Amino acid sequence: MEKLFKLKEHGTSVKVEVLAGLTTFMTMAYILIVNPLILADAGMDFGAVFTATALSAGIATLVMALFANLPFALAPGMGLNAFFAYTVVLGMGYTWEFALTAVFLEGIIFLILTAFNVREAIVNSIPPTIKKAISVGIGLFIAFIGLANAGIIVANSGTLISLGEVTKGPGLLAVIGIIITGVFLVFKVRGALLLGIVATTIIGFPMGITHLPAAGSSWAPPSLAPIFFKFDFSHIFSVDMLIILFTFLFVDMFDTVGTLIGVSTKAGLIDKDGNIPKVKAALFADAIGTTIGACLGTSTVTTYVESASGVAEGGKTGLTAFTAAILFLIALFLSPLFLMVPSAATAPVLILVGLFMISPIKEIDFNDYTEAIPAFLTIIMMPLAYSIAEGIMFGMLSFVILKVLTGKAKEVHPVTYIVGLLFLLRYIVK
Q1: Which end of the chain is less crowded, N or C, counting CB atoms within 10 A of the terminal residue's CB?
Q2: pLDDT-derived band at 231, boundaries 50, 70, 90
Q3: CA angle 115–10–365, rounded 5-degree value
Q4: DSSP string covering 147-214, please?
Q5: Which residues contact 32 (CB under 8 A, 6 or more apart)?
Q6: What is the mean predicted confidence (pLDDT) over 396-409?
């Protein structure tokens, strides 16, 4: 373990890393049920998508662990799966086979861009202030996801969102979970976040929120046959394919970049020059996961923001990712057990991880408005637009524009101008 993951060099241990990996897995295990539910709406086989989800997550995360030695887990991305099902298939009328083909082509393009260091150049071109703001924005975003998952905040036509039910049901269970986990954190209990999930899940039984697996539940992985290598290349040269492919590429590109930067910043993995170590290998993991995932039969695989929960538990190396990957593969055979954990039990962890993620805000220079305004827009747009990519776009565009208009154009990296033009193109196409 020491030779493979360099634990001493990173100031960590096997116990810490394994607990971190377990915590990461528990906070993102919901994708094992949510992704099949969403893609089933597009006409895909639920069981087969479950298997594809677990396999693609396990494989991509193993690549991250063994080649990048970073504590990040990957799985089919939320938002991108919704675009796949509700826009491409149900909205535009294409088959899910056509949508899978677009995902497959996206993966191939990402492999090429990564090989030629294009994605790495984009990551390195993001200004230090924006990198810190990305971490803060992700913190608010992940806390927002936790609050919504628990029903503590709900949709409201009059005010967009409002307070949900917190005196009973999942909302109350999540509040209890926040208190329990908070007490663990105050007393510096090792594995506080994971213990919080377990304790909250157990409390959910008498409340009627946590349920044991149904009698006769199948523990064998469903067959991939209905969706395996089901591609449709008949419309690959159409304008629709170009638009769909561009959307997949763009959103995945900046969701992944944002997550890598934000969680790396929090983990203290950013070097003195502001770069992420082995970022190319990390980006390859994302591209390989997407390509293999399409072949298996699932939507775009991306680096998960929930990886921040493992980092908050002390995860610093690929052993954290390796643990999460193994658990995804084990989940193929223990799905009823893993799916027993209610979202209200993982929500407290996401909310508290949001607290951990916002600490870099102290390092942002709010006296220089050419730095402060882009940072603020990055932070605020992530939760409000429900997108890491949109937050980065607003931050980067405002950074370039403000620097140019105030005579500070020399402070902008040349690649940052190119990225800014890509953002403008994205909004024009959109």
Answers
A1: C
A2: very high
A3: 75
A4: HHHHTSEEEETTTEEEE---SSHHHHHHHHHHHHHHHHHHTT-TTHHHHHHHHHHHHTTTTT-S-PPP
A5: 50, 53, 54, 328, 331, 335, 338, 339
A6: 94
Short-list 77, 198, 194, 226, CA closest to 145? 77
Closest CA to 324 of 12, 59, 5, 138: 59
Tokens of 288: 């390989």
Q: How many residues does the chain have?
A: 430
Q: Determine contact, residues 345/146, Cβ cutoff 8 Å.
A: no
Look at residue 132 in the predicted model and tell me its pLDDT.
87
DSSP secondary structure letters along 328-347: HHHHTT-HHHHTTS-HHHHH
Token pair for 11: 């100031």
pLDDT tens figures, 85-119: 887 888 888 899 999 999 999 999 999 988 998 87
Tokens for 174, please give them: 């999540």
288, 301, 297: which is closest to 111 by C-alpha? 288
